[in-house]
């Protein structure tokens, strides 16, 4: 699914899922950087993100895969 990841002025990362009209803060990352691992949103969804460079600029729209569990 396509998601947009952005960082607000307070430095909080969030993910927006246009198909669901859902925006949630990112509360956990499996890796020290955002890319190439799984993230957890505040609503409990876990998403696997593509492996991009750690200095990739935000906001960005990427293809993510929703993980079960």
UniProtKB/TrEMBL annotation:
<protein>
    <submittedName>
        <fullName>Putative nitrogen fixation protein NifT</fullName>
    </submittedName>
</protein>
<dbReference type="GO" id="GO:0009399">
    <property type="term" value="P:nitrogen fixation"/>
</dbReference>
<dbReference type="Pfam" id="PF06988">
    <property type="entry name" value="NifT"/>
</dbReference>
<dbReference type="InterPro" id="IPR024044">
    <property type="entry name" value="NifT/FixU_barrel-like_dom_sf"/>
</dbReference>
<dbReference type="InterPro" id="IPR009727">
    <property type="entry name" value="NifT"/>
</dbReference>
């Amino acid at each position: 699914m396509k998601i947009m990841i952005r960082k607000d002025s307070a430095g909080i990362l969030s993910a927006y899922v246009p198909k669901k009209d859902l925006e949630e803060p990112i509360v956990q990352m499996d890796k020290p950087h955002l890319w190439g691992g799984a993230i957890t949103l505040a609503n409990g969804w876990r998403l696997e993100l593509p492996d991009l460079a750690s200095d990739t600029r935000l906001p960005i729209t990427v293809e993510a895969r929703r993980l079960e569990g």
